[in-house]
Amino acid sequence: QKEVEQNSGPLSVPEGAIASLNCTYSDRGSQSFFWYRQYSGKSPELIMFIYSNGDKEDGRFTAQLNKASQYVSLLIRDSQPSDSATYLCAVHPGGNTGKLIFGQGTTLQVKP
Amino acid sequence: GAVVSQHPSRVICKSGTSVKIECRSLDFQATTMFWYRQFPKQSLMLMATSNEGSKATYEQGVEKDKFLINHASLTLSTLTVTSAHPEDSSFYICSARGQGFGYEQYFGPGTRLTVT
After folding, report:
1. Does the pLDDT at position A1 exceed 80?
2. Which of B94, B103, B113 would best serve as a mutation to test chain A binding (most A beta carbons within 10 A)?
3. CA distance A43 to B95
């Protein structure tokens, strides 16, 4: 069974620090990786996607992918209280359905 | 860009009645739409995948006769919860994958269903 694993947290960081969120996946053939942010009571919002090994930066967010280790991470620099949310890692394992496999999510708390 | 709307945002209905939820891609054509359900403090659960003009593909354990999905056009999919029961109360969220896009899905704002 194809799986995506995340530490549920909560991960607590002080305001201004770097938050590091991690995700592992089981299907070695996976090619597309996504990070979503979900505020309490709201729907998920796409914040990053990454397809190639290495780093991809977008503002305060950096996604890192290591296919050999089957590991994808999200770094949030200069964390703000408004970043407090649940972060969902999603993986497209291949095939034509377009379905994504979601992790359980990591809850991030940024303390002022 | 890539905006998805859902209507209604919140609905309360009586047990035994049916409720229809609409999902629209506003600024792109959606080849595939997905319907999820999320209970409090739990992760997303995929219910079904629908492609325009085709029958929906339901995930294991999801009753297709209870959750009717219609994907009539490249911008509209509907989910009808038939003969709703209190245990169907949940947060229903649709997402869409755009024509010519990668595999990213864009989510609607969700519909909170309460069955009394």
Report:
1. no
2. B103
3. 10
C-alpha to C-alpha distance for B81 and B19, rounded to whole angstroms: 5
Residue A67 exposure: Cα atoms within 13 Å on the Cβ side: 13
Cβ–Cβ below 8 Å for B103 and A97: no
Q: Which residues contact B81 (CB under 8 A, 6 or more apart)?
A: B18, B19, B21, B66, B67, B88, B92, B113
The whole-angstrom separation of Cα A39 and Cα A25 is 23
* Paired tokens of B51: 């492609």
Identify the pLDDT of residue A96: 78
